[in-house]
């Protein structure tokens, strides 16, 4: 009796496994390369520019030097010299003024030949008018050493006297201011003091 022996050859499993591994490695390498390219493309793409409106500075044109600048109205002078007429022989007088300067109107002039007389005359004056009167009295005394300085609260109102008449009487000197026709309404009254130097007899 004859015995037959069947021999079987093993399938090439290792060869196929190795081939599959190589294919997988190749695919992985290809995907990695694609990822690097995408990263490079993303990195090199410029960032989108934002369109922000630009502010334009506007400058005012420089003033034309040939055009006159607007002038402000000058303030009323604190003291001014006006013409004087009358029998006292005085040719000019000084008018000292202050808004809400106080005092009481009197046509009779007071002799301001001493410091006490000046202080008594200015005691009712306000808003610095007393100090201005004292300073102007000193100036008149220095300018006219052979005369006596007199003063009177000649007017309280809105407009200054344009001239004064100084008359010599038995009681002394009388001061009458010449006032312009009233065309101004002021919010606060102005006190006008008339000072003058009368020659000594």
Give a brief rundown of this model.
The protein is 27% helix and 25% strand.
Q: What would your notes on this structure say?
A:
The chain has 201 residues and is of the alpha+beta class. The protein has a domain at 79-199. Helix content is 27%, strand content 25%. It has a 7-stranded mixed beta sheet with strand order 3-4-7-2-1-5-6, with helices on one face. Strand 1 (79-85) and strand 2 form a beta hairpin. Helix 2 (115-122) packs antiparallel against helix 3 (129-143). The longest helix has 32 residues, at 13-44. The relative contact order is 0.17. Residues 1-16, 31-35 and 67-76 have low confidence and may be disordered. Residues 62-77 have a biased composition (Pro residues). Residues 44-61 have a biased composition (Low complexity). Residues 36-78 are annotated as: Disordered.
First-to-last CA distance: 192 Å
Q: Describe the biggest sheet?
A: 7 strands, mixed
E-strand count = 7
Give the amount of beta strand, in percent. Answer: 15-25%
In N-to-C order, the SSE pattern is HEEEHHEEEE
How much is the radius of gyration in Å? Answer: 55 Å
| Average of the residue pLDDT scores | 77
| H/I helix tally | 3
Portion in helices: 25-40%
